[in-house]
Each structure stands twice: as C-alpha cells, then as structure tokens.
Predict the 3D structure of the following.
Amino acid sequence: MKKGKTPSLIGSGAGSVKSVTSGRLRYCKRCEMGIAKDSICIEVSIPGSMGSKTYCTTCFAEILDQTEKDIAKLRENLPAIRPKDSTT
Ligand SMILES: [Zn+2]
C-alpha cells in the first residue's frame, strides 16, 4: 500500500511555492528589483529550513518555464516513465 499523498518534486515542503501580497517592500532574489508593498510576489520555501526566497512575478514566470523544461528533460531521460494519459 502506498503511504499518504503522492509526493511532488516541487510540492509538499520541497520548495513549495505560494503567491503572496507583500506586506512591505521586498527585493526579488533574482533580479533584485524592489517589490512594492501590497503587490504580488512569489515565495518559494527553502527545503530543510524555515526560510523562503522571494521572486517578482516576471522572474517567477521564467523559473516556471525552466522548471517545465527540466521536467520535459527528465521525462526524455526516463523513457519508461510516461504520463498516465499518454497513449504513445
Ligand atoms: Zn525578479
């Protein structure tokens, strides 16, 4: 029997991501642009720590694209593993 929920590479504590409204001026970890109070930013938790990294939405869109590429690459490198709904 499988235990609990299906784990995810980016979910359940391992770099989990949430969109938050900044309560104060913050700086994007990547481009170091200021994120004004009351604007949306993305918090990515750091596995194994209580901390998190803050990104602006522009940088996070790029990070998400890169994550998709990495997942696609992973699937290519693991040909035996296909999405459940794939017919090929
Ligand atoms: Zn940024």
